[in-house]
Amino acid sequence: MPGFPTDSSSADPYPLGLPEPWRTVLATQLTTDERVLGWLRTDLDAHLRYGDGLIVLTDRRWLACGADAQASRSWPLRPDLEARLHDYAGVGSLELTDAHARLARWRYTLERQPEAQRLVAAWQALREPAPPGAVPGTPEAPAADPGPAAPRASSLFRLWRFARPYSRQLTVGLLLTLAATAASLVPPYLTMPLMDDVLIPFQNGVPIDYHRVTLYLGGLLASSILAWGLGWARSAILAWVSERIGADLRTATYQHLQQLSLQYFGGKRTGDLIARIGSESDRICLFLSLHLLDFFTDVLMIVMTAAVLLAIDPLLALATLAPLPLILWMIHWVRDRLRHGFEKADRVWSEITNVLADTIPGIRVVKAFAQERREVARFREANDRNLVINDRVNALWSLFTPTVTLLTELGLLVVWIFGIWLVSRGSITVGVLTAFLAYISRFYVRLDSMSRIVSTTQRAAAGAKRIFDILDHVSSVPEPAAPHRAEHVAGRIELSHVSFRYGSRTVIHDLSLDIAPGEMVGLVGHSGSGKSTLVNLICRFYDVSGGVIRLDGTDIRRYAIADYRRRIGLVLQEPFLFYGTVAENIAYGRPDAGRAEIVAAARAAHAHEFILRLPQGYDSLVGERGQALSGGERQRISIARALLIDPPILILDEATSSVDTTTENEIQKALDNLVRGRTTISIAHRLSTLREADRLVVMDRGRIVEIGRHEELLARDGAYARLHRAQQQGESPAAPPGWDETDDIDEALDAS
After folding, report:
1. How many CB atoms lie within 10 A of CB 446?
2. Which of 114, 116, 108, 105 lies closest to 91 in space, CA to CA?
3. Which of 144-153, 503-512, 743-752 comes out lowest in average pLDDT?
4. Which candidate, 125, 14, 10, 132, places its Cα nearest to that of 77?
5. What is the pLDDT of residues 228-257, one digit of tens each?
6. Containing H/E element for 52?
7. What is the mean predicted confidence (pLDDT) over 625-638?
8. How many whole angstroms separate alpha carbon 8 and alpha carbon 12?
9. Gap between the Cα atoms of 324 and 294, Å rounded
10. Beta bridge partners of 99
11. 339 and 150 in contact (C-beta within 8 Å)?
């Protein structure tokens, strides 16, 4: 075909791993030498109903067909063809156009978006010239998801950044380890003269030289006491260091978590994060304080013992060390398998923690819907998976450790056989053989100990990797390199051509809005219209995908994040209170606030009266998440918390939507005090709460459709008027004349 490279030499016409059912369908559609370059399985029809379809790009044409291979259509490849992707409200769209018109449009749920993106990438690769030597138009096949990367021992080496501040103590500890190991090697060496110069001559009639015996035994006692003292000092120093490394690791991980954006937490489970910071750091600390020390001791003992054995008798030493290569190979073989097993076990353990983190805070909902058995079943299922994985690891480990012990026993047997033969020939003395047996016993004990440390090492490596997965994550809301100070904030907020995407879904489309200092703006619209997303962007919980948001003329991305957010008071629909007293929760934004300031904020929030009715007043505990208080009481404490920091900008996100009318009136009085003199952005479903707003901004599908005061918007009889009538009548807003859902989606997709 002119303008496009073709290559039909591939043996497999489906190089991208097309699922088997669709291969059968395509078998009736493709020619013998036609090769598939990309595909998309659509799951929506033209009327947004679920239905299966397949879009295929070959080296000759675009092809569309259904599951029954009927009603297929195709378009030969031409240089003027274009393939474009759009998405809106969970629906994706692939359009095929030429220079004059749209030839076809297919829809799918965003679950299929990766397939659509690969298909368009294949089309772009086909249109653009391929580099020399490459197969034209052949995109890389989508690899299967390998899951989380395997933990590597290098994760443990990365802990050095936390150990560096304690390098002096570590150096002292390692020197003490070296000295203690050397001292422990003295007693076996002194057995040689005791045997050869004292005991064997005594059996042959030579009197015992007690002075020499006293020297030898004194050397044994002194070396043992020295080894004990050095070992105690070494253990104390290294344990002190390891505890501080573990504490620093936990603090650094938690501090980094606090700096990550909400986007990161949106994809993580609470139980998993708690497990990483808690149990994983404890495991690393235990490894550093105990097992790493044992590992260094074992390595030093093995190396120094091997050197002593070679110095005493090289031939017998070589026979003694014969099983060593096989043991080292086994350690390496088992290590790789344990690494994968412990990583799986850590993931399953996080699932168990996630179940606990879900059900314990939500125990009231569990009991209200009588789902105790279901939650127990969830826990049992996760616990059973944990049991299966640990059984596999234990089966491998239970085979490995006895095998190493057997090899060490065989090595000891080799020493006996070869040593007796050398003694019979007069090559070595009985004292040399006795010393060899003492050394080799220690050598193999240490070798067996080192092999057992493989398990704890891989557990610690798996934990270190999971912690560094957090530390390596870069926030999607970065701090500016040279932050601009937010001083004397007037409160002018400008949104200029702002766009935002959640993953592949566009939520805010080219939105512009100017909010004057001290102005109160109400955001209204259907659920999902983008109101809360817009507030999140203004708070810089997320960064815009396009456009810019300015505070007093300065891009908010130029401010230090904490400095900027201290200028914003936020009152949420579901207020979150921490476990502690009422006073501590009110003063959360200003921990140094005095009691008089706290009481003044509570009075302004109309919370003072009910607080005084609590058993300990301002010192009463609110319970976890404020469960000891009603929803309205929690909300008024939340308002007092915002009042105390005295912010120039105030954001109210459905502050009165979940309370009764009487409580709403109390909260509304508190809000009247709160908004006075501040730039205020208020989201509310109850339009009556926004009548005093300077302007109402009506949003729909991520766009502003109307702006004006309450009376003006009612007079226009547009989107706001429909919302108002719906609330007056207690029903859903009336749809515009001639409205159809597919037309609505079409319009949105075209605009996006």
Report:
1. 21
2. 108
3. 144-153
4. 125
5. 888 888 878 887 888 888 888 888 888 888
6. strand 50-58
7. 79
8. 10
9. 19
10. none
11. yes
Distance of alpha carbon 160 from alpha carbon 464, whole angstroms: 12
Site of tokens 């309370």: 659
Q: Give the HSE-up count for residue 265: Cα atoms under 13 Å, Cβ half-sphere.
A: 13
**Cβ atoms of 2 and 24 closer than 8 Å:** no
Collect all residues with Cβ–Cβ distance below 8 Å to 80 and sequence separation of at least 6: 98, 99
| Unique residue bearing structure tokens 């021992």 | 153
- CA–CA distance, 681 with 535 (Å, rounded to integer): 8
Q: How far apart (Å, rounded) are the C-alpha atoms in residues 114 and 130?
A: 23
d(CA 171, CA 175): 6
460-517 pLDDT tens trace: 777 777 778 778 777 778 788 788 887 788 888 999 999 888 766 778 888 899 999 8
CA distance 264 to 474: 9
d(CA 330, CA 403) in angstroms, rounded, equals 9
Query: Given pLDDT bands bounded at 50, 70 and 90, which one contains residue 90?
Result: low
CA distance 423 to 315: 13
Confidence of residue 412 (pLDDT cuts 50, 70, 90): confident
In three-state form (DSSP H/G/I as H, E/B as E, the rest C), the secondary structure along 495-530 is EEEEEEEECCEEEEEEEEEEECCCCEEEEEECCCCC
The answer to whether the CB of 177 falls within 8 A of the CB of 300 is yes
d(CA 548, CA 537): 10
Helices (H) and strands (E) in the chain, counts: 27, 17
Listing DSSP states for 145-204 in one string gives ---SPPP-THHHHTTHHHHGGGHHHHHHHHHHHHHHHHHHTHHHHHHHHIIIIIIHHHHT
As a residue count, the chain comes to: 752
**Residues near 692 by beta carbon (within 8 Å), at least 6 away in sequence:** 520
In three-state secondary structure terms, 543 is: coil
What is the C-alpha to C-alpha distance for residues 173 and 435, in angstroms, rounded to an integer? 29
Tokens at 86, concatenated: 């759009």
**571-608 burial: b if 16+ Cβ within 10 Å, else e:** bbbebebeebbbbbbbbbbbeebeeebbbbbbbbbbbb
| H or E segment and range at residue 713 | helix 710-716
Please give the share of the chain, as a percent, with pLDDT higher than 90. Answer: 1
CA neighbours within 13 Å on the CB side: how many for 557? 13
**In whole angstroms, how far apart are CA 385 and each of 46, 346, 379, 390, 668?**
43, 11, 10, 9, 51
From first CA to last CA, the distance across the chain in angstroms is 33
pLDDT the model gives residue 549: 92
- Tokens 């110069």, residue? 197
CB 550 within 8 Å of CB 556: yes
How far is Cα 749 from Cα 743, in angstroms, rounded to an integer?
Answer: 10
Q: How far apart are CA 304 and CA 309, in angstroms?
A: 9
Q: How far apart are alpha carbons 300 and 56 in whole angstroms?
A: 63
What does the alpha-carbon distance between residue 752 and residue 745 come to, in Å, rounded to a whole number?
10
- CA nearest 59: which of 117, 3, 116? 3
Q: Let me know: does 621 contact 677? Beta carbons within 8 Å.
A: no
Report the distance separating Cα 325 and Cα 446, nearest Å.
Answer: 15
> Model confidence at 681, in pLDDT bands (50, 70, 90)?
confident
Residue 642 identity? A
Contact between 88 and 748 (Cβ < 8 Å): yes
Q: What is the CA radius of gyration of the chain?
A: 37
Question: Around 201, how many Cα atoms within 13 Å sit in the side-chain half-sphere?
Answer: 11
